[in-house]
Amino acid sequence: MLSFRPIRPEDDAAVAAIIRTVMPEFGADGPGFAIHDPEVDHMNAAYSVPGAAYFVVVNPEGRVLGGAGVAALEGGEPGVCELRKMYFLREARGQGLGEAMLRHCLSVAKDLGYRTCYLETLSGMDQAIRLYKKLGFKPLCAPLGRTGHGGCDHWFAQELA
């Protein structure tokens, strides 16, 4: 059975490899996508700061199969976090982990004091977009903050009750 836990320093290489494997599957490997963010190779350190958290999905043998996190929205208003780098290898998809992980991240975001969770994605990530809508994210007409992800063409936000 797959489960998730907070990221550890020894997970950095696996998480970077997952991001670099999954994003090109959806055409998200050019300029303006998270695959080029400096934090990709140092995810544990990037999410070990106040107001941030990142979690990995692991199989029973401890192999990392995906992850997701939250952190303050760069250039955003106070109280707004961003769902960041939610990617799963193909073998971890379709098992309900995305929904469980997203619910967990939203709960953590609320516990961290955020009032709104923002996310960006792109056309073609249809399964993810359906999940975001299912869990109450509302589409936005334009991006928020300064994420540097100009390649994304769908933006969503959810108030954290």
Q: Using the CA coordinates, give the radius of gyration.
A: 14 Å
Q: What's the mean pLDDT score?
A: 92
Major beta sheet summary: 7 strands, mixed
Q: Which strand order do you get reading across the main beta sheet? A: 1-2-3-4-5-7-6
The dominant shape is globular
Uncertain residue ranges: none
Helix coverage percent of residues?
25-40%
* Structural classification: alpha+beta
In total, the number of strands is 7
The ordered string of helix (H) and strand (E) elements is EHHEEEHEHEE
Tell me what portion of residues adopts beta-strand conformation: 25-35%
N→C terminal distance: 31 Å
Q: What is the count of helical runs?
A: 4
Description of the structure:
The mean pLDDT is 92. Strands 1-2-3-4-5-7-6 form a seven-stranded mixed beta sheet, sandwiched between helices. The N and C termini lie far apart (31 Å). Strand 3 and strand 4 form a beta hairpin. The longest helix has 15 residues. The protein contains four helices and seven strands. The chain has 161 residues and is of the alpha+beta class. Helix content is 26%, strand content 27%.
